[in-house]
Design goal:
Blueprint lengths: L9 E4 L5 E7 L2 H16 L9 E9 L2 H19 L1 E14 L2 E12 L13 E2 L5 E5 L2 E9 L1
Antiparallel strand pairs: 1-2, 2-8, 3-5, 4-5, 6-8, 7-8
Helix pairs in contact: 1-2
């Protein structure tokens, strides 16, 4: 039985080699937020992450698929380069204008501490493989496969 979008944030799906998930939201912003939580929860338990570091993220892409990949890739970049693990995300708005889509968001987390942060899976990259951004009568659904 498929649950309505309102009753879940994300779910992990079977994939032979990588991590695959669907994220849901009553708005596209909420679906993008939940996709970020799903990606980071594939790596680490995000419920243990504080919000002492706040990163403002502004992105523009030609389409919603590209915007989703850019959003998750930017978070992964900040994790790898700035050494920040994120656990909370707030996508303020996603807008479309002049054949482009823009995202404005804040990601909250804390500096990486390998003695405290235990990782389950390493996410190397966000892929376009089986990528989906869509709207149905219950809200928005995004599907992502990340390279692990």
């Amino acid at each position: 039985m498929t649950l309505p979008v309102l009753n879940r944030e994300y779910e992990y799906l079977e994939h032979t080699a990588d991590a695959k998930f669907r994220a849901y939201g009553t708005t596209i912003e909420k679906a993008f937020q939940n996709a970020a939580v799903a990606m980071f929860n594939a790596m680490i338990d995000t419920s243990t992450i504080s919000d002492e570091v706040r990163e403002r993220i502004e992105l523009t892409s030609e389409d919603l698929d590209g915007l989703l990949v850019d959003w998750l890739s930017e978070l992964l970049y900040l994790f790898e380069v700035e050494q920040v693990v994120f656990g909370q995300f707030k996508v303020d708005n996603i807008t479309g204008h002049d054949d482009n889509y823009s995202l404005s968001a804040i990601a909250c987390g804390e500096p990486l501490n390998l003695t405290r942060h235990k990782f389950d899976t390493e996410v190397k990259a966000v892929t376009y493989n089986e990528l989906m951004v869509g709207e149905n009568k219950e809200g928005w659904v995004v599907q992502v496969v990340v390279d692990t």
